[in-house]
Amino acid sequence: MTAHSKWHLPEDRYFDPDPAQRRIAMELYKSVADLPIISPHGHVDPRLLADEHASFGTPADLLIIPDHYVFRMLYSQGVRLEELGIPRTDGVPVEKEHRKIWQVFADHYTLFRGTPTGAWLAHGLRDVFGIEEKVTGQTAQRIYDEIEAKLKSPEFRPRALFKRFNIEVLCTTDAATDRLTHHQAILHSRWDGTVRPTFRPDAVTHLLHPAWPENIEKLSEVSGIVVDGYPKFIKALEERRAFFKSMGARATDHAVESAYTEALIPAEAESIFQRGLQRKANAEDAHRFTAHMVMENARMSIEDGLVMQLHVGALRDHNDLIYRCFGTDKGADIPVASEFTRNLRPLLNRYGMDSRLTLILFTLDESTYARELAPLAGHYPAVKLGPPWWFHDSINGMNRYFDRVMETAGIYNTAGFNDDTRAFLSIPARHDLWRRTAANWVAGLVVRGVLDTEDAREMILDLGYRLARKVYNLG
C-alpha cells in the first residue's frame, strides 16, 4: 500500500491558508471539537434505535441504499439505481447481492472527489471504522469484509455508535399520522439515549399529494376524530401535535416549494378542503391551501410552543421516470428560485412579533440570503435562519452563508447547525465540517480585528453547540 492510497484528512483541513488565521481557527475548533452533538432535525429511522440489538445490516445497507446523496451522483454518471439495490415501487427486481452493489460504488468512487459527500464518507470510513485505505475498485472487497465484520459486533450497533458519536439528542422527522411506535419503544426501554420525534404534516396539508384522501382517513383513525370537514381537520392536527409533544417533540417541519402565505376565511378553507376530499382540487386550490396551512401551523406553534421549521425551494421528484419507478426521495429534487419578503408578509405581520413563535427558515436559493432572509431575521423577533441546507451543507455553502447572512442578522438570529440526514454514519462528519468551517470564519474576524479572542471563543461555542440547543428548546 502506497502513501497515496490512504485517506487525506489533515488535522487542519478546511482552514484558511493564512498562517495566523489557520492557527486561531485550530484553537477555536479544538475548543468545540469534542462537545456533544445536538441533532435537532434529521431523517434517521427511529427503528434503528428502538431495539438494542438492531443492526445497520451490510455496508451497502449503511452507506449506499438509504443515501440519496450517494446514489444520485452515481446515477448522474449512468449507473442504474437497480444496480445499487434501490427498491422499485412496482416490484421489478433490483440487485440483491450487496457485494456487487459495493463493487459498483467502489468502481465509481472517484466521482466523490472534492464533494461534501466524499468528505463525509472519508471521515466515517477512517474515523469510525478505522479504514485507512481509500475505496477503489481494487480495495473494494477487502474494505467490505472489514466493515461487514465490524457491523456484526456490539460496538457497531446503532445505540453503541449513538453513544460513541456523543449525540446528546437526535430528532427524527415523522408523519402527522405516525403512531410513533418506535419512539414509544425507545422511551419504554432502559436505554438513556434521547431521541425525539418531529411533527411533519405535509402529507395531509398538500392537497395534491397522490395519497391525500387516504392520508386524511389515516388522520381520522389515529386522532379519533372523523375528519369530514375543515374544522375537524384542524382539530385532528391539534390533537396529533399534542400527542407528538407528549412524546418529547420540540418542533414541527414543513416542506413547501414556495414561501407564499395567505389566511383563508373559514368558509373558503372548507370549500377547498371539500374539493380535495372529492378529488376535485386543482393546483390553485392546493397552492392557497398550503399557504393557509403554513399560517395555521404558525398559530398552533404559538399555542403549543413547538418550534416551526419551514423548508422552502425544492421542486420535488423532477425526474418523472424515477418517481414512477422508485417513488419519492430518490435524488431527483431540484432547487428553484424563491421569494420570501412578499410571500411571508401575511404570516409575519400576523405572528412575526409574537415571542412565543420561533420560525426557522431554510432555503435552497442562496440569492435570498443577503437580500431577504438576513434582513427578515434581523427584524422580526420570531424569525431565525436555519443553516445551509441540502445542496449547500458544504464548505463553500457554509462560507457563503457566513459571508452573506451574519453581518445583517448576527449569529444570534440563526439556529446553529443541524445535519438533516438519513445517513447515520455521516452525523459526526457533518457536525465536524460545520465546526471547522465556523471556527475558520470566526478566526477570520479575529485576524482582521473585528473580534477579540474572548468574543471569538464565545461565538464558536454558540455556533458549534449552544445555539441549536437554545433555539430548539433542547436545554
What would you note in describing this structure?
This protein has helices at residues 19-32, 47-50, 59-63, 68-76, 98-107, 116-128, 140-151, 158-164, 181-188, 202-205, 212-223, 230-246, 266-277, 283-304, 320-326, 345-351, 368-377, 395-409, 427-447, 453-471; strands at residues 37-39, 167-171, 174-175, 195-196, 199-200, 251-256, 307-312, 314-315, 334-335, 359-363, 383-385. By secondary structure, it is an alpha/beta fold. The chain has a domain at 57-153: uronate isomerase, domain 2, chain A, CATH 1.10.2020.10. The protein has a four-stranded parallel beta sheet with strand order 6-7-10-11, with helices on one face. The protein has a three-stranded parallel beta sheet with strand order 1-2-4. The protein is globular. The protein starts with 18 loop residues before the first helix and ends with a helix. The relative contact order is 0.14. The model has no long low-confidence stretch (mean pLDDT 97).
